[in-house]
Each structure stands twice: as C-alpha cells, then as structure tokens.
Write a structure and sequence with these properties.
With 98 residues, the protein is mostly helical. 34% of the residues lie in helices and 4% in strands. The protein starts with 17 loop residues before the first helix and ends in a 21-residue tail after the last helix.
C-alpha cells in the first residue's frame, strides 16, 4: 500500500543552458524572456499568494508562430513547459515546481 500524504510531482526536464536561452531570445526577443527572480515572481505565485512554484525562465511569445517555435525548441532539448493562463485558478496546476 502506498504511503499516505502529498508528494511533489516529478517532471523530467533538462536545465536551461546558455545555448537554449540564446535560442529563446532569437525566437521571442529580449523583452519576451524573463529570467530574474523578481520578474518571474508574478508568474510562479498564485493570486492568493499561497502557492509558489519555480521556473528557469518565463517565456512570453508574441504570436502563435513564436509559441510553436518555443515549444519545438524545448521539446528538442527535453525542457519542460508549463503553460499558464490568467493565473486565476484555485488548483495551483501552474505553480508546479520544476
């Protein structure tokens, strides 16, 4: 019988290397890539301030073409992607620790 209690989800992912970060910048531009902890905070914290996740970077594509290129790049390098909408849900699905 499995042990009772919450557990952290395990999401296999490769680290964001300098090469991948440069590739992301080439796709979305400097303003679309948020890497500093202060800048990432609104995207990894739920609106109630109760759940905090983690992210190597926040990527804000400006078009469906950019979304496609970012997802393709991340998939090719084994980097996990957690899409986020308006950050208004109460379940915390977008706050997973990566």
């Amino acid at each position: 019988m499995p042990a009772a209690g919450p557990s952290e989800p395990i999401i296999p992912t490769a680290p964001l290397t300098a090469r991948i970060r440069d590739s992301l910048r080439a796709i979305i531009g400097e303003k679309g890539l948020i890497e500093d902890e202060h800048g990432k905070q609104p995207f990894v914290t739920d609106w109630r301030g109760l759940l905090v996740g983690g992210a190597g970077a926040v990527v804000r594509p400006g078009s469906t073409e950019e979304v496609s290129k970012v997802v393709r790049l991340c998939h090719a390098h084994g980097v996990a992607v957690v899409p986020q909408g308006g950050n208004t849900g109460l379940m915390g699905g977008a706050m997973l620790r990566l």
